[in-house]
Amino acid sequence: MKQPPSPAAIHFGAKVRNARIALGLSQESIAELAQMHVTNYGKIESGIANPSLVTMLRIASVLGTDIALLTEGLSRDDLPAEFDVLSADEFLRERDRRR
């Protein structure tokens, strides 16, 4: 069953799309410069794909921006619903509470 897009992927994709549009370039141009297939690039912009760190860095490099700007504002609240993660701090507090 196909998973719905994660809020993180949608957020990242929107920032990538806005940066590309600000440059006045097509998806095809950015994909070619990032050495990736335009279909895959389009999936990233639409928030369907979860790109690897290296792919994110390639895209940021082509867009002439820092990868941190494309991920700015993301937090664990942007993880897909099936990932109910505890921070290390929460884990340690709970562990200490149980002792």
Describe this structure as you would to a colleague:
This protein has helices at 7-23, 27-33, 38-45, 53-63, 67-71, 88-98. The protein has one domain: Orthogonal Bundle (434 Repressor (Amino-terminal Domain)), CATH 1.10.260. The chain is elongated, with a radius of gyration of 17 Å. The protein is an all-alpha fold. The N and C termini lie far apart (41 Å). Helix 2 (27-33) packs across helix 3. The chain is built from six helices and no strands.
Key descriptive features of the protein:
99 residues, 6 helices, mainly alpha, 434 Repressor (Amino-terminal Domain), 0% strand
Q: Helices and strands in order, then pairings?
A:
Layout: H1 7-23, H2 27-33, H3 38-45, H4 53-63, H5 67-71, H6 88-98
Helix pairs in contact: 2-3
Quick structural summary:
By secondary structure, this protein is mainly α. Helix content is 60%, strand content 0%. The termini are far apart.
The overall strand count is: 0
Structural category is mainly alpha
Helicity range: 55-70%
Which fold name corresponds to the CATH topology?
Answer: 434 Repressor (Amino-terminal Domain)
CATH class equals: Mainly Alpha
Total DSSP helices:
6
Segments where pLDDT lies below 50 for 5+ residues? none
**Mean pLDDT level:** 93
How many structurally independent domains? 1
Q: Provide the CATH architecture.
A: Orthogonal Bundle
Which value, in Å, is the CA radius of gyration? 17 Å
Note the gap between the termini.
41 Å
Share of β-strand residues: under 5%
What is the CATH superfamily? lambda repressor-like DNA-binding domains
Following the backbone from N to C, one meets helices and strands in this order, namely HHHHHH
* Shape, per Cα inertia axes: elongated
Largest sheet: none
